[in-house]
Amino acid sequence: MKKKLALALALAMTMSLALTACGGGDKSSGGPASNPGTSNPGEPSGTSSSQPSSGLSAKDGGTSLTFTTGGDQGTYYGFGGVLGGKVGETTSTTVTAVPSGGSKANIENMDLEDAQLGFVQSDVMAYAYNGERLFDTKIDSFSTVAALYMEQVQIVTLNPDIKTVADLKGKSVSVGDQGSGVYFNAVDVLAAYDLDVEKDIKPQYLSFGDSAENLQDGKIDAAFVVAGAPTTAVTTLAASNDVYLVSLDDEHIDKLIAASPYYSKNVISKDAYNTPEDVTTVAVGAVVIARNDVSDADVYNFLYGVFENIDTLGHDKAKELSLEFASSVTAVPYHPGAVAYFADKGITVK
Predict the structure, then answer these.
(1) Is pLDDT above 70 for 50?
(2) Is 168 in contact with 201 (CB distance < 8 Å)?
(3) Distance CA 49, CA 67 (A)
(4) Does residue 2 surpass a pLDDT of 50?
(5) Contact 333/141 with Cβ under 8 angstroms?
(6) How many whole angstroms separate alpha carbon 90 and alpha carbon 300?
(7) How far apart, in Å, are the Cα atoms of 265 and each of 119, 166, 247, 254, 258?
(8) Residue 25 predicted with pLDDT over 50
């Protein structure tokens, strides 16, 4: 695990250096992006010294943080790189986004002190904090930074005859890596339709990129992809194929939410992948967490870099960011640096 993370970090650092050489930014005039803290805010010491209209300032004394995201064909990695870059430009804290195995791996890496920040699904975060499902024991070495956007449960197929979850019975279906958050999302959705993931379908344990490739090659019939839509792997597949997403009906959505309240009803626009119509599904939250021992300044700076610069983030998911949603997590307490930032915005969090 440590070796893989080290390789990913080295790759991310190499890309960062290449971007700098191509004019991606020079931080020689200031330290890494600043950190959040409970002390009085200081002036940002990154390349940008301008302050947003809110009048807040980033914190001095930021450090370098490793931000584990997800697979390189998912939203976590692409958006994580954008967020890390903006924090580095506007504060004294440096954030390096690296690819990873996703939510469960990110929590485990953080618990092993191999990373300081990570993307997680809201349901997986709660499982870890409570020591259930994916986790044999409680892990509480992390705290909440912010909820950023909703991750839709996307059931992707190239077969127009697969119209409902019930149509997946007997089919070869990718359900994510075994024991992953995606796997348990598949378990939950199928159970709402009285289907068992191990008995009623032919489960394949594939990453998003591998799922798209296997759909393309006709090796599987459908795939569960849990990520913010549009998702890179599905967008790539849709570029050369007619992609269809399976809708969930209200009766089964209500049944699912009653059994697992981490979900909420969600609609994916037909424009996401040029599907024939909008698709109704469920979603969980995409949340950034931090190790409890990350400095208050660094967490404050992460939030400052993101929420004081939403208009310049340059990513589709930036349109979904809001302070109201960011401060809505109740399953896991917020980091003190996040508490300080939200307090400065007039918001009280747990």
Answers:
(1) no
(2) yes
(3) 24
(4) no
(5) no
(6) 12
(7) 21, 19, 11, 9, 12
(8) no
